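Record pair follows.
FIRST:
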Amino acid sequence: MFRLQGSKVLAVDMTGDAVKAKNGSMVAYDGEMAFKKLSGGGEGIRGMVTRRITGEQMTVMEVKGHGTCWFADRASEINLVGLQGDKLYVESSNFLAADAGLRTGTSFTGTRGASQGNGLFTTTIEGHGQAAIMSDGPAVVLRVSAQYPLTVDPGAYVAHQGNLRQSFQSGVTFRTLFGEGGGEAFQIRFEGDGLVYVQPSERNTIAGDV
């Protein structure tokens, strides 16, 4: 059972079951818990190889036991997402925890240059259960429909779910449009039907290499 204590701490109540969580994100626990480091953050060798290629530094641990375990990471805001057999795509730096029964892996998202440290692959979480994702400031959930496609600054993108097509547009950016310069050389466009999570603060991104 996932529940928030405030907006920046995740409490997970366990009765012999397990969760996957970002390595080092446990801040306290009661009862009896066992911790095991998982390789690559994905399922099997593919998850390990793709992350090594893209240089992502995400490591995941499995926590199993009886009691309550609390997770947090750098005072980030935490957002709970319920999955009903669907798939959630999330930047690896924004992943905090997921039910152990959910399948985690990586998905190729196209040639887009790189958000710093995130490369060409996105973490995927799929199945039935709960996941917790982080954002720098309270996340906003935006609806995408056939009539209203959505364009997102790559530094503000956190995650998305639903029947969405993702593409990358180069050219004029939000920053260069207003003469500030040094901004992203591309934008992320979503079309279809689904939800996109964005944060009110931008991670550092690398301009130009689309």
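SECOND:
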Amino acid sequence: MSNSIETLLDNNRAWAERMCEEDPEYFKRLSNQQNPDYLWIGCSDSRVPANQIIALPPGEVFVHRNVANLLHHTDMNALSVVQFAVNVLKVSHVMVVGHYGCGGIKAAVTGGECGIVDYWLHSVREQYNHHRETLEHLPMEEQIDRMCELNVKAQVNSLCRTKILQRAWQRGQNISVHGWVYGLSDGRIKDLNCTITGLEQVETLYRIDRLQQTD
């Protein structure tokens, strides 16, 4: 086993011992319950740790992460996380969180061969193509950051078009979906003011109550 892995295991032992010294009941409480109010859908980037950014301890945030914080309706992994968080954990808030300077967004905007991730980022390229005329006059770094914001807004809308969220709202569940972007350079979160709190805010074309009326 490499020295770097041994170091991680040593760090873990030291951390666990320290936590027990500071709070002997810490791990007992943590193992007995998971009752978070928040679901965080974020980027896999190692510089964006959900709990640390919003200063909440383990057990308070349910987390799903992937490259460029995308919510594809064909992604059973992401949809399973959302369904469990909404239907079982009964979270009150879902935060879709991007970050400025996102490598996935940059790859989609600048092009090039990126292997299998190209398929994953296809929807981001489509977004960029849609907004190209309003973005192409900007320096590339600003284009990428602007796309990080536009992508978050798109994923908020995508999430709210799922039957999981819409059925939760239909049965009166109190749940809001928020769009945020995190700044790596200053550690601050920017609220994009695209929060959706109910079915009436979802575009009519994508609402399940419209589909039911046509049955």
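COMMENT: The chain has ten helices and five strands.
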